Amino acid sequence: MLVLDDTIVAISSAPGGAIRGIVRISGPRATTSLREVFRVSCGLDDSSPIVEPCFLKGEVILPGFHSPLPVEAYCWPQGRSYTGQEVVELHTVGSPPLLEALVRTICRNGARTAEPGEFTMRAFLSGRIDLTQAEAVLGVIDAQNDAQLDVALRQLAGGIADPLHRLRDSLLDLLAQLEAGFDFADEDISFISSQELQTKLDATLEEVESLRCGMRERTDSRQEVRIVLRGRPNAGKSSLFNALAGERHAIVSAMPGATRDYLTAETTIGEVACRLIDTAGIVAAALFQTEDSAVASLSAPDQAAQLAAQRQSELAQITLYCVDAACLPDDDELREVSLLNPAESLLVLNKVDAADETDMRRTEALFAERFHRRFERISCRTGTGMEGLRKNLETLAVNVSRGSGDVVVSTATRCSDSLDAGYECLRRAHDLATNEAGEELIASEIRLALEELGRVAGQVYADDVLDRVFSRFCIGK
């Protein structure tokens, strides 16, 4: 996978048909491959070198197709692109057969099909990004909710890379000062005092510990996922709360509004630690409002219950929205569901043991038509559907829990051991400095720490590490 002197091409847009599709070319013959198949109608002429990023408009003749394919080409010269090489992106009609034919045509003119992750690997090997940012690209692609996407984007923007580079620069400066002293060991020249050495090692230990905490948060399975139960009064939220918690916490009553305050319980869904929160049923006067005046028509206890439920809903990582299977939803309830993020919520059709099949199908059809979402059919009394609900809830909880922390999961998994080893090296260096041991020993520990931190950023790597990282990418990225 480490060959860089050839030219690669792949479809880089999402699979399937679309208005626009993208084919990406990278390598020393990227612009040459373009000129072999591309007729310019607007932009530079065919003989002009591409020395600045530019836009060209034209067409490509594809073998077997009667009409020329209209194409817009975006060109970047070497050193100015994502991969650091010459890069051309061809934007055209997003028809899979057309895009595949375009790739085949370019391959016949000096390129080869890219391997999974090869564009991003070239960006890494050319120094455009470090290994943590490369992993963040995969995190962006794989993100299944807003939280995961936010984590990946922050890491891609240098959330880990920047402090790592500052840390390594600081340690390299410190090492240079120590080694400069070795050259003048026989003379009374000091490049760094004992106190300054300890102070700088203190600062680097704090920075490494901060990075370690971020990694631990990302991989710590003990982090609780907040699951909030919402729905109209008497939708069976409290019964579901008790069923998921495994014991009777909430009062269950046929009288609507039995839950006035919110209740919490710790439980485990699969292998994910969760905190369940049962809230008061949503009443029409309080729907979709956040101002206190919205619930002014309610009694004081009901106002407090509605506001508390609203606050808990805002803090939810997962929402279980309960609908009474025997009651068709009204416009207010439909609007409430429309505000839920499908990646962070499940719709539960509750009390199916007491409902008519025709009514349930009408409710499900309505939600499918409006929101393209399906229900989990359950009965807390008979246990119907509870196993399936737990499995789907576990999948959702795992995805949500992976969206917490400051780094993507792959980075945390790969880097935790290196950060721990680097921290131990710096701690030993600090102890040696405190005891005024030989500076050669301190410098040796700092070199080891730099090597471990280099593994995190990718300055130190083995081919098998890169294979593990980039083989999980899709082709074209």
The helix fraction, in percent, is 40-55%
What is the overall pLDDT average?
A: 83
| Proportion of beta-strand residues | 15-25%
Number of strands: 13
What assembly state would you assign to the polypeptide chains in this entry? Answer: single chain
**N-to-C span:** 14 Å
Largest sheet: 7 strands, mixed
Strand order of the largest sheet: 3-4-5-6-2-1-7
Low-confidence stretches: 250-259, 286-295
Radius of gyration: 30 Å
Number of helical regions? 15
Order of helices and strands: EEHEEEEHEHHHHHEHEEHEHEHEHHHH
Question: How would you characterize this protein structure?
Answer:
- The protein starts with 7 loop residues before the first strand and ends in a 7-residue tail after the last helix.
- The strands form 2 sheets. A 7-stranded mixed beta sheet has the order 3-4-5-6-2-1-7, with helices on one face. It has a 6-stranded mixed beta sheet with strand order 9-10-8-11-12-13, sandwiched between helices.
- The chain is built from 15 helices and 13 strands.
- The chain is α/β, with parallel strands linked by helices.
- Helix 6 (161-183) packs antiparallel against helix 7 (194-219) and helix 6 runs antiparallel to helix 14 (439-457).
- Mean pLDDT is 83; it is low at 250-259 and 286-295.
- The radius of gyration is 30 Å and the shape is flat.
- Strand 9 (263-269) and strand 10 (272-278) form a beta hairpin.
